[in-house]
Design a protein that fits this description.
With about 325 residues, this protein is an alpha/beta fold. It has helices spanning about 10-30, 55-65, 80-85, 120-135, 150-160, 160-170, 175-180, 190-210, 230-235, 250-260, 275, 280-295, 295-300, 305-320; strands spanning about 45, 70-75, 95, 110-115, 240-245. Helix 6 crosses helix 8 (about 190-210) and helix 6 crosses helix 9.
Length: about 325
């Protein structure tokens, strides 16, 4: 059972109406949930998450691929993930921020899927500091934001619930998002992830059109994405391994035990970049991190990702238990 705590002011009547709406939306979304068959051990899909240790994880994976007769494919565009990928050939390993879009077409269903999560607060801080110096990276949303003047709160609102956005790509047909009036041609590449909340808001407004009273649901940030939360958890259940960046070393042990990659030694990989890639200003980092954890408005922008992260962490602990792996102290 998942408990969601709201920091916005609501009456008791509105609260109960809201809970009922959550159940209705989750039930409707569950009908579009995707089941992934992971019986095959011949291929793997690395679902990368920006600013969640994906670069370090990828750097450990790449040398292993190079020593074997394998092909590693990084999906560069959403259209490839959503439909054109099957025209490009067969790959032993796919590694992409857009990997979930494969699920909407059934591609990769015989592979073992894995990913790495990070707590939304430090992930947001890391993304903000990174994007201020790497504004050309599409994950930063340079088409929408001015990084000369943007505040941390403004960035938090724009980058909100970024983890859940990726799973929406598995639950919505690619053509549906690409043809959405607000998305248009900007949906190509990773930038499509910035358009997911826009699309979800359009769908929410369509679903509630004509209702006399929505009890203020429309004022809740990213309310349109709520119906994808439970299906996203269902998808995570199908992953062979879910790592946690705060437990990076233990996650490498879990990958070794769960993914069954012949000759691969995740826990012996070079993880130095984990602490050195995109070094943040220490003082600014600490100030923003405290702000991200304590400010009610910032937490409202992460509310769905906070729930998803907690669920991912439970799957990580479950995996460690299933493989009889001893957990070390959590990284700080």
């Amino acid at each position: 059972m998942v408990t969601i705590l709201l920091t916005t002011e609501t009456t008791m009547s509105s609260f109960f109406t809201y809970i009922i709406s959550v159940l209705i939306l989750s039930t409707v979304a569950a009908e579009t949930s995707v089941k992934i068959d992971t019986d095959s051990d011949q291929c793997w899909v690395m679902h990368r998450m920006p600013k969640a240790g994906s670069t370090t994880t990828y750097s450990i994976l790449e040398p292993w691929v190079e020593t074997r007769d394998m092909t590693l494919h990084h999906i560069p565009t959403y259209s490839q993930a959503g439909g054109k990928y099957n025209q490009d050939g067969n790959y032993d390993i796919v590694s992409s921020f857009l990997a979930p879009a494969l699920m909407s077409t059934g591609l990769g269903s015989q592979c073992k899927w894995f990913t790495m999560f990070r707590h939304p607060a430090p992930r947001l801080v890391s993304a903000y500091l990174y994007c201020k110096t790497m504004v050309t990276d599409l994950i930063c949303g340079k088409e929408e934001l001015d990084f000369n003047t943007i505040t941390f709160k403004e960035f938090a609102k724009f980058w909100s619930n970024f983890a859940l956005r990726q799973f929406v790509l598995a639950l919505v047909d690619s053509k549906e998002i690409l043809e959405s009036p607000s998305v248009k041609e900007m949906a190509e590449g990773i930038y499509v992830l910035h358009m997911v909340p826009v699309y979800a808001r359009e769908m929410f407004e369509k679903d509630t059109n004509g209702l006399e009273n929505t009890n203020g649901l429309e004022n809740i940030h990213d309310i349109g994405m709520l119906k994808y939360l439970q299906p996203a958890m269902n998808i995570l259940d199908t992953y062979e391994a879910v790592g946690i960046m705060e437990n990076f070393d233990d996650s490498m042990k879990l990958f070794d035990a769960a993914l069954d990659m012949p000759g691969m030694a995740w826990d012996k990989g070079n993880t130095k970049m984990y602490n050195t890639v995109h070094l943040d200003s220490e003082n600014e980092h600490e100030e923003l991190l405290h702000f991200a954890f304590t400010d009610p408005e910032i937490r409202q922008y992460m509310w769905l990702d906070l729930v998803l992260y907690d669920y991912a962490k439970s799957l990580f602990h479950e995996g460690m238990y299933d493989f009889n792996l001893r957990e070390e102290e959590e990284d700080k």
